[in-house]
Design a protein that fits this description.
By secondary structure, the protein is mainly α. Helix content is 64%, strand content 7%. The protein has one domain. The strands form 2 sheets. It has a two-stranded antiparallel sheet with strand order 1-2.
Length: 279
């Protein structure tokens, strides 16, 4: 009888639910962060901006700058056409406009400079943004791989040539007074040294040669300045596009190969980011 009661008591105790474990004092600890592995394809989102707007703006501003510089070249080639010799006063007429320029040159000069400077900045920004977008297309959309090395080399060469051309022509034109020093030495019409020019007949005979020389040299200097600015704009666009494309393509392929991914972890009383992948 005692054995029967003992067996029944054992079965009854075994059927009772286990007492809950004692809870530690203080706030409950935060749940463990999600440590699930990154997906096989860790594809970053496609860039929102392609840079086409910046590149288009650079093209418009560059066109305005090119037009302004072309207008300066045309105006300079005609600048000394009214240069002549006045027999009554025995002096050269129209020399001030020939040397110091016209209103058109004064207006077009800042337009060309500011337009090309802004175009340079927009081309750099647009090229970098478009290069990043193109790298994403190559890495994840099957677009043909671009020759980034060629873009970088060609862009760096054009930009360097443009900057050197611009600075070189600027310095040379300043030293030559936009051609006046050379042309007056070859066909003297203004006494700059205190010597004898050879008489009125000689000065009058030098006027046509001086006029042609000034037209060629001044327009040549201004053309060199415009070409240098244009080369700089095109070059910086190619350079930044190629550099951005090359850098971002390597980065995106590295992310994909190592399955790197940033995942948000949100829970009660905890928020953060986890970087998952193969290292």
């Amino acid at each position: 009888m005692a054995a029967t009661v003992s067996l029944a008591l054992s079965v009854l105790l075994a059927a009772q639910p286990a007492a809950p474990a004692s809870q530690p004092e203080g706030p409950a600890p935060a749940p463990a962060a999600d440590t699930t592995s990154a997906p096989t394809s860790a594809r970053p989102p496609e860039p929102r901006w392609r840079g086409t707007g910046l590149l288009a703006t650079a093209g418009v501003l560059g066109g305005i700058g090119f037009g302004a510089n072309l207008g300066r070249v045309i105006a300079a080639s005609r600048l000394c056409r009214d240069l002549g010799y006045d027999n009554e006063t025995q002096s050269v007429s129209g020399i001030d406009q020939c040397i110091f320029g016209s209103t058109a040159l004064g207006v077009l000069a800042p337009i060309g400079l500011f337009s090309n400077t802004a175009a340079f900045a927009f081309a750099a920004g647009g090229g970098s943004m478009h290069g990043r977008w193109a790298a994403h297309r190559t890495a994840f959309s099957g677009d043909r791989k671009q020759n980034a090395g060629l873009q970088i080399g060609l862009g760096a060469g054009l930009m360097t040539a443009g900057i050197l051309t611009y600075l070189g022509v600027r310095i040379a034109s300043f030293a030559d007074a936009l051609g006046f020093a050379t042309c007056n030495e070859r066909n003297p019409i203004v006494d700059m040294t205190g010597g004898d020019l050879g008489g009125p007949e000689v000065v009058e005979g030098n006027v046509p040669g001086f006029r042609q020389c000034m037209g060629r040299r001044m327009s040549g200097y201004l053309a060199g300045i415009g070409i240098g600015q244009t080369l700089g704009v095109v070059g910086v666009g190619l350079l930044t596009h190629g550099a951005s494309y090359n850098r971002n393509l390597k980065l995106m392929r590295y992310i994909t190969r190592n399955q790197l991914r940033l995942q948000p972890n949100l829970s009660w009383g905890y928020a953060g980011l986890s970087l998952s992948g193969r290292f």
